[in-house]
Amino acid sequence: MEDYLCEALSQACSECHLQGGCCFEARPPLSQERIDILRENGVSLDAVEFAGYKRLCLKQDGFCVLFQDGKCSIHSVKPETCVAGPFTFDIVDGVLQIFLKRESICPMVRFLKANRQAYDGLFETSVERIMHLVDSIPEEEMAEILKIDEPETDLVAEITLPEKR
Ligand code: SF4
Q1: CA gap 112, 8 in Å, rounded
Q2: pLDDT recorded at residue 1
Q3: Distance, CA 61 to ligand 1 centroid (Å)?
Q4: 23 Cα: distance to centroid of ligand 1 (angstroms)
Q5: Domain range summary for the chain, segments of one domain joined by +
Q6: pTM of the model
């Protein structure tokens, strides 16, 4: 994605009245590859837990363990689902379904809907990151991840996954 679009999206994020709302009660799933990247960037293994799949822990205040001083402390290497931001996913019968959160829970969505170029840029990046995550996580862990409900989202795309995934 173009740098200026990344900056515009970061700006939209920083103006969020929910103040890090997407990092509240967020336990992003982690592939072993992502854990290795986080470790290389100084994140302790104490930040990771296993609950049917590997994920980041929560702090006592309910925010992600890596949410510090009002923002993500590992922005440049954050997990795939965090990059995908307001886009989320499910897999049904070998089809990757992409959902977009509603404006009521993510103010960035209004910005995306008003800026086609930003929407397309983030959509492309999100699908690429999500597909990488799907490829990187063991099937049994992905089955657990897919049990997580994503309320207040709308289906925006369906992509048939290659067989074997
Ligand atoms: S890794 Fe960063 S962006 Fe993702 S939930 Fe944690 S603090 Fe938020």
Answers
A1: 10
A2: 65
A3: 14
A4: 5
A5: 3-160
A6: 0.90
